[in-house]
């Protein structure tokens, strides 16, 4: 059988999503269900998270269809009945989605997305929805920490070559820009998402020339508006002297060297020496850009040491979120057929019902606390979840990435100062409303588990 299966196929999911769909089908179950995606707890060392990935989720839901090849492959597994497979022929997602906008800061237990749809549809999309939201959220949250430590210096995503696959390379460029990076080195991400693209050169370019100075000059003349020269292939300070001499010659041709790049060794000390060489030659305008296994901790240390570095290329440690590579997140049923549902598993209990978070701000604009409650139970503050899809159609055009980026910048600036630090801080206050606690008791009574433990301090 000839197949044309892409990463957007509905078969990109866990087998059990389909076996549950078949079982629901056999039992005639397809009433409306609500599932919510949330994070149970923050990773060690994190004080906040940033919601990201919603745009990719909505695009996935909008275009979710089964091709003849998809259905044929499902048939080959032997797990599915012919009537069930026929029911997939005209499938489309017909549900509603409420979500926090991309760029919104959030905390444990707060849903950042809710899917309300016939249960077969809502169940099917679980794995891919989690996959998209989890990855971009964890990268955006890491990138935001780097941006905080950079204190306004240029930041470029350098992560493609060590990303865990092509999609990760693309989405990490998007998520890092949303969280405050200046741009990306990944060309296709820049073109697709409207992110500024930056590039320098590799050591191989210098090595391919017999003379380092000639390599610098050839590149600068080839890229007169984009000349960042990598000077540490052999001897960093010697390379800086060669750039200073070259810059003087190029100036006569109207060509300007934009910056030099450091990628190895003691970046702070090299930057100081290179800065002195360039300044001594009268080239204070030539910037210094640093890269090489950087993260928020190394960027903080370089900035606090006063290293004269104007920008950073950050890749592997950011787009793999190296120190916290996953979130303890979940996509859980909270309502089915009009009744509240919740899980009581030890250490993984969930809050029932369709929920909303309200955020309060102090007089100075700083976040002061959130309340987790039920949809329709109005509380003081700003509601964070917003409708974004009704009956399988978006409620508005896609939000520009720049708009989401601006929201992220506003949200990060509104965090209490202690939460913007890299040091662990006291948890941000998220109160649980009486209405939600009461619904949890009702759900327990409904399932015959009333009285099985405390209703406070639960994690989903």
Automatic annotation (TrEMBL):
Domain Nicotinate/nicotinamide phosphoribosyltransferase, chain residue ranges per copy: 155-335
Function: Catalyzes the first step in the biosynthesis of NAD from nicotinic acid, the ATP-dependent synthesis of beta-nicotinate D-ribonucleotide from nicotinate and 5-phospho-D-ribose 1-phosphate.
Protein's pathway: Cofactor biosynthesis; NAD(+) biosynthesis; nicotinate D-ribonucleotide from nicotinate: step 1/1
Gene3D superfamilies hit by this protein: Aldolase class I, nicotinate phosphoribosyltransferase
Similarity comment: family membership: Belongs to the NAPRTase family.
Protein name per its UniProtKB record: Nicotinate phosphoribosyltransferase
Reaction(s) this enzyme catalyzes, per UniProt: 5-phospho-alpha-D-ribose 1-diphosphate + nicotinate + ATP + H2O = nicotinate beta-D-ribonucleotide + ADP + phosphate + diphosphate
One annotated GO molecular function: glycosyltransferase activity
EC class of the enzyme, as a word: ligase
Gene: pncB2_1
InterPro entries listed in its UniProt record: Aldolase_TIM, N/Namide_PRibTrfase, NAPRTase_N, Nic_PRibTrfase-Fam, Nic_PRibTrfase_pncB, Nicotinate_pribotase-like_C
PTM entry text: Transiently phosphorylated on a His residue during the reaction cycle. Phosphorylation strongly increases the affinity for substrates and increases the rate of nicotinate D-ribonucleotide production. Dephosphorylation regenerates the low-affinity form of the enzyme, leading to product release.
Domain Nicotinate phosphoribosyltransferase N-terminal residue range list: 11-133
Organism, scientific name: Cupriavidus laharis
Enzyme Commission number(s) from the entry: 6.3.4.21
Keyword annotations of the record: Glycosyltransferase, Ligase, Phosphoprotein, Pyridine nucleotide biosynthesis, Transferase
Pfam families per UniProt: NAPRTase (PF04095), NAPRTase_N (PF17767)
